[in-house]
Amino acid sequence: EPFVADEYIERLAWRTPGGGSRGGEAFDPKRLLEEFVNHIQELQVMDERIQRKVEKLEQQCQKEAKEFAKKVQELQKSNQVAFQHFQELDEHISYVATKVCHLGDQLEGVNTPRQRAVEAQKLMKYFNEFLDGELKSDVFTNSEKIKEAADIIQKLHLIAQELPFDRFSEVKSKIASKYHDLECQLIQEFTSAQRRGEISRMREVAAVLLHFKGYSHCVDVYIKQCQEGAFLRNDVFEDAAILCQRVNKQVGEVFSNPETVLAKLIQNIFEVKLQSYVRDQLEEHRKSDAEQYLKNLYDLYTRTTNLSSKLMEFNLGTDKQTFLSKLIKSIFISYLENYIEVEIGYLKSRSAMILQRYYDSKNHQKRSIGTGGIQDLKERIRQRTNLPLGPSIDTHGETFLSQEVVVNLLQETKQAFERCHRLSDPSDLPKNAFRIFSMLVEFLCTEHIDYALETGLAGIPSSDSKNANLYFLDVVHQANTIFHLFDKQFNDHLMPLISSSPKLSECLQKKKDIIEQMEVKLDMGIDRTLNCMIGQMKHILAAEQKKTDFKPEDENNVLIQYTNACVKVCGYVRKQVEKIRNSMDGKNVDTVLMELGVRFHRLIYEHLQQYSYSCMGGMLAICDVAEYRKCAKDFKIALVLQLFDTLHALCNLLVVAPDNLKQVCSGEQLANLDKNILHSFVQLRVDYRSARLARHFS
């Protein structure tokens, strides 16, 4: 524990008798002082003793340090001597090693020619046996020494190649015959070892055959036997992958060039098994069933490329990507050359069949929408004047648009895009994708949507028709839904194929043109439909509104809140507003409702100016306009509501007291209106001719 002087003194005082208040003893300062003095003397004696001991230990430490330093110096000197001896020994070892290497080179220089001479002597001996026509050596007669015999005969065969034919024709033929026999025996031995599964024996025989001309035949035999029993299932691609996986593990243990052997096996599988399988699958449907042919072609090509991706894991040499691509191309080149023509032909016939089947189900004979000068002239006149050209066609409520047909057409096109992406050459991909897109535009947009729009336009009755059924809004609703599906396929399936090519701008322009063309017809049809709605309202007003409604014979006996014509018109308008909301989306709803609301207001405004109004009739007109205004609120368009608010204020002029006319006309809602408009409403009052009213308004 750390020394604390205060605590030490406290303990000393506590132990001294009379030094504290322990046990009731009285405090004795003299005894405490005496004890402190004695204790200080003891501490001084102890300090001197410890100091002497410290000095002695310091002297001893200095002495030992000097001795240790001396010993270290002696060890350093010994180390320097040992290092010098080591250098001398290293130099001596290097000198001896140089001498040994020189001696070894000399011995090798003498031994190599000697070995060659011995080997040449043996070969001459064996050559003499062939020359004599009798093979006596054990190496040729003992079947267990086939490896040594193969080495000898291979060398003799090379020598025989250099000998003149006229003098050594017989011996050359004997050597060649033996060479061929041994080669056949080795190949047979390799085959047997492969069937027995003896990898080590296969490796030995393959190493011997490596220097023979028949080495490639050995590889062919290996490849052939590997495939025995490998293709027993229906999935030839999976079988091929499993076979290559198995052979890849084994081929490195057998051959010195495993990548070459494995590549040759893969080439054999592609050119024999796969090519035969692909041909059988495709030729069956090539001319008879384009749909099945394209499905099979896509499936087979996809499975072949997937197999190629699996084979990329193996070591097949330097450029395995190019190697496998060439193999795939060799199988499919005859089918891919005219792929897009088959695709377009099938897509055209299939799309036409889908459309025809739909029209047949509706018992509809498709009308010919003419082209050429007269039709173009009609189209321009119709766009400028919005007049129906030609007789109106009763479609019986049929829009001639089918979501099922659209889904089928888009599904066929989607599959065509997928096949195009997989089967087209990268350089031809944008061009081929554009051709497929053109087919979609032709059959979906032109033959189906545009035809439905033309038919719908022709089915819109004239604005003066009574009880006309307006189905064009249903056409608008379905066309809008179809456009969304069409646009989604354009973005999801076409854009990735053409995004980085010049065809992108061409496709975008084509899409823009077809949409603008159809929007013109939709706008035209909506405009004519609105005209028909206004026409229907006119018929209702003409049939239901009576002159006596606003100038009743008995002013004091009017029991109705608003006229029957108002009730029926408002009911009709509410139905049409709901129909417009259900048929359109986005800003189109507000645009069309605003146009309808403005025309509705104009109709009511002009209608009210056809009658004269008594005081009670004016009140009834105000009630009608209030009901019309309530109906206008359903439009949820500020402009329309404002127009009816103003019209309601104008109707107040029909009932206000003559003295208050000027005050009402200068009110907030009427102050900005033309004075002629105000005057025209005041003139509708039955009391307008009175001098008093004319004087107040002038």
Q: Report low-confidence residues grouped into runs of 5 or more.
A: 371-376, 386-391
According to DSSP, the number of beta strands is 0
Number of helices: 24
In this structure, how is the largest beta sheet organized? none
Helix percent band: over 70%
Helix and strand element order: HHHHHHHHHHHHHHHHHHHHHHHH
How would you concisely characterize the structure shown here?
With 698 residues, the chain is mainly alpha-helical. The chain has 24 helices and no strands.
Give descriptors for this structure:
mainly alpha; 698 residues; 24 helices; Methane Monooxygenase Hydroxylase, Chain G, domain 1
Overview of this protein structure:
The chain has 698 residues and is mainly α. Among the domains are: 7-132, no CATH class; 366-376 and 395-538, no CATH class; 545-696, Methane Monooxygenase Hydroxylase, Chain G, domain 1, CATH 1.20.58. Helix content is 75%, strand content 0%. The chain has helices at residues 5-15, 29-132, 138-141, 146-162, 165-196, 199-209, 215-226, 236-254, 258-283, 290-311, 320-336, 339-361, 373-385, 403-423, 429-458, 472-498, 503-544, 564-583, 587-608, 615-633, 638-651, 661-665, 675-682, 691-697. The protein is flat and about 150 Å long.
